[in-house]
Specification:
The structure is a homodimer. Chain A is an alpha/beta fold. Chain A has a domain of 204 residues: Rossmann fold, CATH 3.40.50. In chain A, 36% of the residues lie in helices and 15% in strands. The first copy, chain A, has a 6-stranded mixed β-sheet with strand order 4-5-13-10-11-12, with helices on both faces. In chain A, strands 8-7-6-9 form a 4-stranded parallel β-sheet, sandwiched between helices. In chain A, α9 links the parallel β10 and β11. In chain A, α2 crosses α12, α3 crosses α4 and α12 crosses α13. The longest helix of chain A is centred in the middle third of the chain and has 15 residues. The termini of chain A are far apart. Chains A and B meet through α4, α5, β8, α6 and α12 of A and α4, α5, β8, α6 and α12 of B.
């Protein structure tokens, strides 16, 4: 299953903090912590099981201003801050009164992950994967990716001084290639689409010794990084859960992990136990979870993506069924929007709150709008929307729809004639 | 001088916090706080004079995780956090051991302002200008700019709900136009170069009532925002000044304000009084201050810029003589590097620390390298280098020099043949 070979005796004490085992989400079977991602019994997804002990608000608040303030809740060692990493997280939670007014919501916040080190939430998950790779003795830190993940892996690997190899489709736009190539001399362009790149990555993970593919063989560790979004939102609200939260859905991992984070905070007594509704946001051109939700079925039918929201374009989302389950169980919903609505969402967030989001964030804003209009989201309750990445990475999405209001000669008379004064 | 007309009685109590007056840097003449930027006696630059009273570390540490934790040291009201703003600052101070090792330095830090809301240090200064504009009753928030400043003004204005008008040269690259146009419907493209745009802005500032041009008539307030870089560095080092600091020089304002910040911290007893050396970094293609430093003269001879470091391309830097003075007085220096060295600096910082900087940051890294090689900077002393902005904004600078190591078919055999395994 994986060739990151470190015998257990080689693992140092506390390599994974309070994590105790890998536990199958489907059958509950437990395996030892290591580079495994599928249950040997039922092939279900493995996730991290912990014994947290006591964790206090004071302990967290005394920590660094990045995700490591939550290290006791992550599969990382207690000395994680001392290992070079990009120090992601603790991004802005902005009160979004202007957007709220336009949408008819009373109390709205935007959690802005576009200000992370490589400008997306991927820095969080990659930082956790990097820790696992280091503790497991990996020699190479790698991923298949079309964008945000490639940036995050290449940057984190550079800073950690570990060799990175990043695989991308060869037809990827040049700016996106540069944004990874600047960090690594081992960017590999693959003739094929993302599925081909992904398949090649799995093959290499099986053949090569000591390779940690962040989203393949160390995925259970990687995925835990998304929990920090949930922790931060609660802490930044003053150790309180919101009533409603809207989260974009690609593989669905982020949504399930934010829910997991909220549940952990409740169990640890760090926030009051209260109901909250989780909403999933998809693009119409890749909406397998939304389609299943609306049809009232439990199974996700894979689709071939066709949307400008490339970072959400996963046609067969691994955690789709868990997203369905969480959204239904909490009283939320899953909704989707068109590419035009996504473009409008990007501009609306920029014009109201000064945040330039990528297409995934445009999807979230547009879905939020649609949820209010269709009465699925209660506009009187406190709501948080997550912005997962930066608009500079998906400039093409809006470059046709925004631009100068006027082009003038450099004279006051020419300016006065524009009517902009 | 300015048409932001608010009679003094209309200013609310405490509108500018501990700021007491505008004081001429040249002759010391004081004028009332308002939209003024040049001394009525001698035309010298005006800057903010304060009476701080007592400011403690505890007071600052209890503040928000953005520049407003230093509000007692800025010309802003005590309730500044409650007015919508982009909440910039408190960016990463990263220990840069990999870069240090390559450069032969023992103890190096990078202050990374590329993770600010619109990805440059300009968010700091614009936030202070926005506060002044609001308190002065301005109706329009404006600037002439070719890049970072335009982004910051358009975003901050959108979030504050104040009308923004941003002036750019009409031949500006489309991505840079989009990165401002997404925030404002009043982007004005001007047929001409930056000097033409700037001249037009001054003309409009004189003609129109209630316009706050951030870098023209509210410049003294605006410039104070750069002090927060100095405060943060000291606080993040554990309330301690570094021995050496390297700062890029465009107008020179940032360098003088970081020095001012260090001096204020010493006077307030917030850090120990100790010597520190300040170094200025310029691009050879626009190096009027470096040329004067090397020639040992006090006067700056203006130049016509010709460099890829566009955000440093100010041929007649307003604060150049103060930069010279500070660098000489503290035992530092001013140095410049070629465009090729700048490109190499960008890649070196990315590959060693996972930070993708713009050309200004590449300049700083390259100058740091040159200062060590020429013996001007002591490699055994603690050193901080400032990264002012994000590489995504100046992609062209490196797009020709980095890229995939290999392009392969999607098979393991093809990968194995690359030698990257």
């Amino acid at each position: 299953m994986s060739a990151v070979v470190v015998e257990k005796p080689a693992l140092r004490e506390g390599a994974f903090g309070n994590a105790q085992a890998l536990s199958c989400r489907e059958c509950g079977h437990q395996v030892e912590l290591g580079p495994h991602y599928a249950c040997p019994e039922c092939f279900g997804p493995l996730e991290i099981a912990y014994e947290f002990g006591t964790v206090t608000r004071e302990q967290i608040e005394a920590g660094p201003r990045n995700i490591w303030r939550y290290k006791a809740l992550l599969p990382v060692p207690d000395d994680i801050e001392s290992s070079p990493n990009t120090e992601p997280g603790f991004t802005r939670l902005l009160k979004a009164d202007n957007l709220a007014a336009e949408l008819g919501i009373t109390n709205l916040w935007v959690k802005d992950d576009s200000t992370n080190p490589t400008n997306s939430f991927k820095d969080r998950v990659v930082a956790c994967a990097l820790s696992a790779a280091r503790e497991l003795g990996a020699k190479v830190f790698a991923c298949p990716s079309t964008g945000n993940l490639a940036n995050a892996v290449a940057a984190a690997g550079a800073r950690a001084g570990i060799k990175t190899v990043v695989f991308i489709p060869s037809n990827l736009e040049q700016p996106k290639q540069v944004n990874s190539a600047v960090f690594t001399e081992s960017l590999v362009a693959v003739n094929g689409n993302y599925d081909d790149v992904n398949k090649l990555a799995s093959e290499i993970a099986g053949e090569e010794e000591g390779w940690a593919f962040v989203n393949v063989n160390v995925r259970p560790f990687y995925a835990e990084g998304s929990k920090t979004l949930g922790y931060e939102i609660a802490e930044q609200l003053g150790w309180r859960l919101p009533d409603q939260i809207v989260i974009p859905v690609a593989s669905g991992s982020q949504l399930t992990k934010v829910h997991k984070a909220f549940q952990e905070l409740i169990k640890l007594g760090l926030v009051e136990d209260k109901p909250y509704k989780v909403f999933g946001a998809q693009a119409e051109g890749c909406s397998p979870v939304s389609v299943a939700y609306k049809a009232g079925v439990d199974a996700i039918r894979p689709v071939k993506p066709d949307t400008i929201a490339k970072s959400l374009a996963i046609g067969n989302p691994a955690d789709g069924i868990y997203v369905l389950d969480i959204c239904k169980q909490t009283g939320g919903a899953v909704e989707d929007v068109t590419d035009d609505e996504i473009r409008a969402g990007i501009v609306q967030l920029a014009r109201t709150e000064g945040i330039f989001t990528e297409t995934a964030g445009g999807t979230t804003v547009a879905v939020l709008k649609k949820l209010v209009e269709t009465g699925q989201l209660d506009p009187t309750l406190e709501t948080v929307a997550i912005n997962t990445g930066h608009g500079l990475k998906t400039l093409d999405a809006v470059s046709g729809s925004v631009g100068p209001a006027a082009t003038i000669d450099p004279t006051y008379a020419a300016f006065a004639a524009t009517g902009l004064a």
